[in-house]
Inverse folding.
């Protein structure tokens, strides 16, 4: 079979295609975005017409995937870690309903917050929901675990989570493909009430789920990912979860490691494995990428017993991602840094592209707000969040997708009038619309500025559900027509934008200002594609 | 054989094309490869880096350890210096000399070049101008790769083949400009 050079994300996508997946569901989010993008650009997926449209948000993608599973087909849903918060209701309850066709949920965590607002560890969600978690160490394992995941999912009729982190998601390596498996055909669940979570049914299913979860560590596929590698030097036993195993090996070239190592790639883990390593070694070093979840469990609440080193006792940093050097230091091995960065090197933070419409919005906003006290602009997550940086310093919040709308409403409730929200088009359709409905129902004195660049910019320019629909959506939600204003954020329209903003700040009800101009990046790409197409003809 | 290379630059300067060329050539030679990239937030005009590891035996970590890189290849001079903590004591640093100024406090270019003078194993090339001569400023990344190619354990011809493969889709003109740029970089540092 063919070998491909793939990102971790792409390996998962290719595996989904090869393992007979009928639907890929996702909302973009770093570091998970490339999973869907790969499926969208795959010839195989196009020929088979695998479902590959973006969803409005992670909750809708999770539920649509569950729907496909209900109808008997294999589905995969991918999201960044904070996306799982949005999808959590469906995710947690999908464990109770169980599945029909295989269902895999890919959660891509971002320890060290390279592109995120927190570094939450999705393995918690697995345990919380009694959903098994597979955690690959390499691109190849990521590929293989999709096959394993669908098999486990269909064997036990439960969803399976694959948890990856930024480093694997965005690192490329060779992947050996397997023979393709055919897709399932449509078939309904055997028990027609399986998905009806009325309390009486839910109790039964929950009981059943707990039994399945307890039996999982003994499953052959699950067991295959956890193994104890013997070592002669019993001074230390090392438990390496997921990707950390690589950082460990990096310090022992040519398999020269002499300590016993317990390598873990699937959860829940058979506790006998922990017993086996702790019988041999008085001191254990726990390596986890993310929260010290397992370390805390192993330590327990009672002192005494084994010495457990890791993130909790300062052997490793409590926060941030690990790397080969941190693991070396934890092992007491030398770890040399190169020369220090000379002081002449300056920070180069991300910034608006030259000519970006968002910056015109902020320049107008600053002027329009001059006569008000500062601190009333609630914003959100996207390229426009860069308005928080100098020289704009234009926004006062960025919390979670959609929170700009609802926080402005809450602040207005408290008497901060006018309250202003600046939200991106994709963020608005992700989670802003329901908040706007709240505002309409109580006629909040808020001004919602939707900075519509007609794309999902921050994550690389994916199609936005909002494109061409914003006015109709706002009107449909009940915003008065004369308070839905449209402007084009260009320098030459500065005066007009300021005037429109000022007028709407004066209005003591709900206003929406749609500032619409295509992202210059996607515009350039579109023009290039069009040129290429013309040339081709 | 093992080469650990840090690629550096600013979002949009084409370091991923360098990675792709070396990666393709490495895989063609049957070498192992791991290459981590930066996506997302830092692409908006911020600093970007890629860790490129090639070896004739299995590679464990996707990240190069501090003090472990054999080579830094940078398409921007200040960005090259940002990754010195990763460079081995006897590692090489090869950089473009033209600054990419998109921050208000970008330092005087001479103070940056002074830092390179302090590093014995450093090479600075005027990649932008050499690329212009080769036919397009946009192939500055290939000039820098050419200049660094001596320190990569892959035959130069294989790198050229990889350029042909990678850019072939875009037409013969783009291929030849990029090969010329690669050769220009190579010949200035032999
Ligand atoms: C729950 C959640 N899902 C996804 C993301 C990733 N994300 C951050 S910004 C963004 C795009 C926002 O697009 P838009 O609102 O149109 O603003 P733009 O970047 O185009 O300015 C996405 C998908 C996130 N931070 N949180």
């Amino acid at each position: 079979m063919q070998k491909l050079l793939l990102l971790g994300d792409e390996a998962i996508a290719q595996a989904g295609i090869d393992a007979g997946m009928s639907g890929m569901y996702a909302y973009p989010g770093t570091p998970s975005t490339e999973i869907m993008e790969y499926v969208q650009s795959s010839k195989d997926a196009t020929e088979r017409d695998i479902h590959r449209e973006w969803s409005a948000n992670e909750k809708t993608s999770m539920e649509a995937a569950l729907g496909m599973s209900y109808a008997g087909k294999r589905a995969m849903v991918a999201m960044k870690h904070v996306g799982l918060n949005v999808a959590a209701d469906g995710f947690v309850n999908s464990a109770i309903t169980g599945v029909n066709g295989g269902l895999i949920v890919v959660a891509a965590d971002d320890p060290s917050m390279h592109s995120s607002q927190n570094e939450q560890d999705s393995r918690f969600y697995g345990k919380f929901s009694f959903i098994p978690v597979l955690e690959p160490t390499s691109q190849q394992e990521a590929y293989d675990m999709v096959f394993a995941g669908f098999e486990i999912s269909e064997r036990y009729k439960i969803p399976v989570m694959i948890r990856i982190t930024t480093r694997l998601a965005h690192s490329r390596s060779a992947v050996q493909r397997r023979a393709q498996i055919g897709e399932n055909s449509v078939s309904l669940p055997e028990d027609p009430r399986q998905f009806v979570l009325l309390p009486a049914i839910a109790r039964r299913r929950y009981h059943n789920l707990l039994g399945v979860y307890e039996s999982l560590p003994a499953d052959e596929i699950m067991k295959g990912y956890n193994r104890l590698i013997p070592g002669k030097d019993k001074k230390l036993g090392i438990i390496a979860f997921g990707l950390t195993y690589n950082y460990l090996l990096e310090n022992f070239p040519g398999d020269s490691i002499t300590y016993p190592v317990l390598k873990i790639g699937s959860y829940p883990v058979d506790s006998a494995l922990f017993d086996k390593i702790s019988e041999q070694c008085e001191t254990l070093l726990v390596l986890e990428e993310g929260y010290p979840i397992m370390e805390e469990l192993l330590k327990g609440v009672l002192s005494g017993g084994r010495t457990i080193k890791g993130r909790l006792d300062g052997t490793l940093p409590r926060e941030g991602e690990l790397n080969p050097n941190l693991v070396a230091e934890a092992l007491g091995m030398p770890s040399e840094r190169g020369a220090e960065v000379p002081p002449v090197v300056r920070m180069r933070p991300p910034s608006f592209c030259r000519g970006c419409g968002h910056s015109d919005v902020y320049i107008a906003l600053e002027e329009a707000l001059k006569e008000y006290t500062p601190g009333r602009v609630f914003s959100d997550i996207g390229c426009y969040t860069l308005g928080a940086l100098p020289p704009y310093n234009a926004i006062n919040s960025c919390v979670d997708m959609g929170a700009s709308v609802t926080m402005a409403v809450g602040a207005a409730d408290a008497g901060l009038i006018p309250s202003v929200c600046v939200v991106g088009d994709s963020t608005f359709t992700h989670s802003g619309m329901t908040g706007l409905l709240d505002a309409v129902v109580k006629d909040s004195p808020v001004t919602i500025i939707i900075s519509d660049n007609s794309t999902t910019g921050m994550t690389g320019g994916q199609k936005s559900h909002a494109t061409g629909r914003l006015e109709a959506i706002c009107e449909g939600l009940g915003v008065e027509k004369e308070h839905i204003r449209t402007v084009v954020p260009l320098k030459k329209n500065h005066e007009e934008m300021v005037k429109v903003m000022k007028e709407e700040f004066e209005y003591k009800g709900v206003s929406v200002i749609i500032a619409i101009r295509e992202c210059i990046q996607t515009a350039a790409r579109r023009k290039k594609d069009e040129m290429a197409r013309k040339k081709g003809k | 054989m093992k080469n650990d290379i840090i690629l550096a630059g600013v979002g949009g300067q084409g370091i991923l094309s360098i990675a792709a060329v070396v990666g393709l050539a490495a895989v063609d030679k049957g070498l192992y490869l791991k290459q981590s990239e930066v996506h997302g937030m830092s692409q908006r005009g911020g600093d970007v880096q890629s860790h490129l590891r090639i070896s004739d035996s299995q590679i464990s970590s996707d990240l190069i350890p501090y003090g472990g890189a054999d080579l830094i290849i940078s398409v921007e001079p200040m960005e090259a210096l940002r990754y010195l903590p990763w460079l081995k004591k006897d590692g090489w640093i090869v950089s473009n000399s033209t600054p990419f100024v998109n921050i208000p406090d970008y330092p005087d270019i001479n103070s940056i070049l002074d830092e390179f003078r302090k590093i014995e194993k450093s090479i600075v090339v005027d990649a932008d101008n050499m690329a212009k001569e080769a036919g397009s400023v946009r192939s500055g990344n290939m000039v820098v790769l050419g200049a660094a190619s001596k320190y990569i354990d892959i035959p130069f011809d294989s790198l050229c083949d990889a350029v042909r493969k990678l850019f072939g889709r875009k037409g013969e003109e783009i291929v030849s400009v990029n090969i010329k740029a690669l050769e220009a970089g190579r010949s200035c540092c032999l």
User: Anything to note?
Assistant: Residues 139-156 of chain A form the longest helix (18 residues). Residues 11 and 143 of chain A are 5 Å apart (CA to CA). The pocket of thiamine diphosphate is lined by residues A 27-29, 58, 80, 82-83, 86, 381-384, 401, 424-427, 453, 455-459, 464 (CB under 6 Å). Chain A has three domains: 3-187+196-222, 226-330, 357-522.
